[in-house]
Design a protein that fits this description.
The complex is a heterodimer. Chain A is α/β, with parallel strands linked by helices. Helices cover 40% and strands 24% of the residues of chain A. The longest helix of chain A is centred in the middle third of the chain and has 28 residues. Chain A is elongated, with a radius of gyration of 28 Å. In chain B, strands 1, 2, 5, 6, 7, 8, 9, 10 and 11 form a 9-stranded mixed β-sheet that branches. A two-stranded antiparallel ribbon of chain B has the order 3-4. The chains are: A alpha/beta, B alpha/beta. Chain B: Pathway: Pyrimidine metabolism; UMP biosynthesis via salvage pathway; UMP from uracil: step 1/1.
Chain lengths: 469, 216
């Protein structure tokens, strides 16, 4: 399994990278109390990208043993030297995020001086990551992962003042202990280890009361980088639709529903804008059921050594036993939801996941808003039916496939199920994943047909099915 | 796509999915809720296969983008005729595809004195002669009652080539006997069994379909 997974991910990297692989990583360092957090939150709130996460290096403090914890409670433990932080773990986690994987970040309790057991923050799908902490700009490996390095510079006297108020008000410590800690650990370490990291920074922000101009300059810079990144993402998606001379139906992973009389007649009904919504739902469910049966006729998890006895007493060996509980579905909200009824008619208790992917209203760039997936989706299922009723650009579907791969699902276990697709959309999926994803389509509309079949470029199925525009 | 192992016999594609569904309903250990659900799944496939054989005519429709789509529409009317009682189990599958379809019923039972099938009851749409007819009976074993039911339909003016006889399991013996009487009727089935045992049950079969669907 690990080798298969590795192969899968290398194939993808050549073809498609969603915005959360190679997220934009910003490191913010500076001495304790310098105002890193306030700069970080200004950046996060100003760039206004919903997929921004702020991670504090404080989460990576090493757990203390009993003796160290005793020291810590007596303010006699050095939290301010680099070794207090598990930079290896921090690197491992940030690297995993940079690779686009769902990643668990530990949670540290300052009250107990330990990681909170069984508690972690799962981060997935972030396009921008802000890593903040005194040693954010210390470790070479972390620096190499960062796109922008910011050092927040403040006079140590100011730092002390800020630190005291925070320790006493927010962290419930005693004044005397705090001062003792400052003198003994914080200040010497700051001078020895933290201040020198200033030279690693791309930008140094003064921590005066009014650093708005400096922060605004940074925000402008970040915003322009992010726009460039989305543009590249979109361009890449567009390019995936070309660069393949093979006819789309000749790919053996692409299946189109046989054009029998029934299928043709139902499709005609669905395209008729005068069809009542009652009939629309009925005929969509019918053709969706036919499509799902075609998928299962072609690929279904089974064992073939089942022995049964029929009611008249005949024993039958080596019979096929379906493993329908190894099939799950993931619907792209809302167009994929149209398949729910036909799915339940076919496999009543099918495990169901949902993904919300929406296109940016201005650029059209697909964006992952949230994902609800069945637990252990990588281990428990041999077939995952990824549904969407219409495939137009294919961008949302490509993103959805990537989400499954990031959760450890193997390409061979994914089947894309779509009622109407453009050739371009199908081709993008083929190209993005090296032709390894099975695609089942009710009807593929060729590029040449689009001039008089522009309905294939308009999302109408889900609005008709749910009766809302 | 179905195959045509014998003339006018359409066999559903023998895919792993279909074979797996048959494993479930053939197994005597399968309880009734599953028996019903998976029989219904197969019946739905039979109905879709039958419907796919019906003719269509060209039809243009206006789409949501105001373009005209040159499509097709169903031509002609259909109805179902079930042979009571087991055949009635297939009505829901037909209704799942054709919501308001008319359904006629024919009751045939073995005459206690002569041991031959005897027609007890028939209730059919008045205009059945103008319709395509889906004759519903889950098992084609000896073909006795199916032949008698088909005879009723033809006497009411239905053209044999417009009759589709849908069943879940049949045998070569049953097909031959039935087609000897009505060579033009199309049989749509999902499984071809080896033959019949001494009690005239299909082997390996699945027992008494009506009992398993309704009672046991």
């Amino acid at each position: 399994m690990p080798s298969g997974t590795r192969r899968d991910s290398s194939v993808i990297s050549q073809h498609y990278s969603p915005p959360w692989t190679t997220p934009y990583i910003i490191g913010i360092g500076g001495t304790s109390g310098s105002g890193k957090t306030s700069v970080a939150s200004k950046i996060v709130s100003s760039i206004d990208v919903p997929w921004t996460v702020l991670i504090s290096l404080d989460n990576f403090y090493n757990p203390l043993n009993d003796q160290e914890r005793k020291k810590a409670f007596n303010n006699d433990f050095d939290f301010d030297e680099p070794d207090a932080i598990d930079l290896d773990l921090a690197y491992e986690k940030i690297l995993s995020l940079k690779e686009g994987k769902a990643t668990d970040i530990p949670v540290y309790s300052f009250v107990h001086h330990n990681r909170v057991p069984g508690k972690a923050i799962t981060i997935y799908g972030a396009s921008v990551i802000v890593l903040e902490g005194i040693y954010a700009l210390y470790d070479k490996r972390l620096l190499d992962l960062m796109d922008l390095k910011i050092y927040v510079d403040a006079d140590l006297d100011i730092c002390l003042a800020r630190r005291l108020s925070r320790d006493i008000v927010s962290r419930g410590r005693e004044l005397e202990g705090s001062i003792q800690q400052w003198q003994k650990f914080v200040k010497p370490n700051a001078v020895k280890y933290v201040t020198p990291t200033m030279k690693n920074a791309d930008a140094i922000i003064p921590s005066v009361n009014d650093n708005r101009v400096a922060v605004q300059l940074l925000i402008n810079h970040i915003t322009s980088k992010l726009e460039l990144k989305s543009e590249e993402h979109l361009n890449k998606l567009v390019r995936l639709g070309y660069s393949d001379s093979k006819a789309i139906r000749e790919h053996d992973t692409v299946h189109e529903l046989k054009r029998g009389n029934q299928v043709n007649a139902i499709l005609t009904l669905l395209l008729d804008r005068k069809l009542s919504s009652d009939d629309f739902i009925f005929y969509f469910d019918r053709i969706a059921t036919i499509l799902l049966n075609t998928v299962l006729d072609s690929i279904v998890p089974y064992k073939s050594n089942h022995t049964i006895v029929t009611p008249i007493g005949t024993e039958l060996c080596n019979q096929i036993e379906l493993n329908l509980d190894q099939i799950a579905t993931v619907n792209i909200i809302r167009s994929g939801d149209c398949f729910m009824r036909s799915l339940r008619k076919t496999i009543p208790n099918i495990s169901t996941g949902k993904l919300l992917i929406q296109s940016d209203s201005q650029t059209g760039e697909p964006q992952l808003h949230c994902e609800f997936l069945p637990p252990n989706i990588d281990k428990n299922y041999k077939l995952i039916l990824l549904t969407e009723s219409q495939l137009i650009s294919g961008a949302a579907m490509i993103m959805a496939i990537q989400v499954l791969l990031d959760h450890g699902v193997q390409m061979k276990n994914i089947a894309v199920v779509v009622l109407i697709a453009t050739e371009m959309g199908v081709r993008r999926i083929v190209n993005a994943f090296g032709g390894s994803i099975k695609i089942f389509v009710g009807r593929i509309i060729d590029r040449s047909e689009l001039k008089d079949k522009r309905w294939a470029l308009k999302n109408f199925i889900d609005s008709e099915y749910f009766g809302c525009p | 796509m179905s195959s045509e192992p014998f003339k006018n016999v359409y066999l559903l594609p023998q895919t792993n999915q279909l074979l797996g569904l048959y494993t479930i309903i053939r197994n005597k250990a399968t309880a009734r809720p599953d028996f019903i659900f998976y029989s219904d799944r197969i019946i739905r496939l039979l109905v879709e296969e039958g419907l796919n054989h019906l003719p269509v005519k060209n039809k243009d429709v206006d789409t949501h983008t105001n373009e005209v789509f040159n499509g097709v529409a169903f031509k002609g009317k259909i109805c179902g005729v079930s042979i009571v009682r087991a055949g009635e189990s297939m009505e829901q599958g037909l209704r799942d595809c054709c919501r308001s379809v008319r359904i006629g019923k024919i009751l045939i039972q073995r005459d206690e004195e002569t041991a031959l099938p005897k027609l007890f009851y028939e209730k059919l749409p008045e205009d059945i002669a103008d319709r395509y007819v889906f004759l519903l009976d889950p098992m084609l074993a000896t073909g006795g009652s199916a032949i008698m039911a088909t005879d009723v339909l033809i006497k009411r003016g239905v053209k044999p080539e417009r009759i589709y006889f849908l069943n879940l399991i049949c045998s070569k013996e049953g097909i031959d006997k039935y087609h000897a009487a009505f060579p033009d009727v199309k049989i749509v089935t999902g499984a071809l069994d080896k033959g019949l045992n001494e009690q005239k049950y299909l082997v390996p079969g699945l027992g008494d379909f009506g009992d398993r669907y309704y009672c046991i």
